[in-house]
Amino acid sequence: MPPALAAGDRDSPPAGDAIAPPPLESVLAYADRLRSLPANGLAQEQAALGEPGNLPVRQIQLALVLMHSHQPADTARALGLLQRVMAHPGPDSAPLKPLARLLAARLLDQRRLEDSLERQSQQLRDSQRRIEALNDRLEAMRAIERSLTPRSPSRTPTP
Predict the structure, then answer these.
(1) Taking CA 140 as the corner, what is the angle to CA 135 and CA 145, rounded to the nearest 5 degrees?
(2) Neighbours of 14 (CB within 10 A)
(3) Kind and range of the H or E element at 98?
(4) Backbone angles phi, psi at 36, to 5 degrees
(5) CA 144, 147, 148: angle at the middle one, nearest 5?
(6) Which of 44, 73, 107, 151 is the most buried (most CB within 10 A)?
């Protein structure tokens, strides 16, 4: 056991952690790297991650990849992964939980906005159909009006 841990110094990192960055820093660096990847690079990254199992760092990494796809199914899966990180009881997930909460809140907002956009798009399509139907009716009425024989101006009787 390292002398620092034997003495009860819990703020000092274990000897093995001096080389590896803390999980939060590695996840943030990973997120930064994902931003520059093209769509096919994201697909390759998702395939490389595979199933994250019960590892909080891998769960957040996969959630970050899925967040870049902007597909409703991927958004739901990413949200599920983040919820698993938030519920993870192990000490290795503790530094990741605030980030998981932040990302989950962002995903919920994104889903709410996507739902709102879908509703508005449907309303727009319905309105455009109604406008088209009304324009067709108006054009039909104009055609009927043009087809009527022109009436000669009525003569007003002179007294």
Answers:
(1) 125
(2) 10
(3) helix 97-147
(4) -95, -5
(5) 90
(6) 107
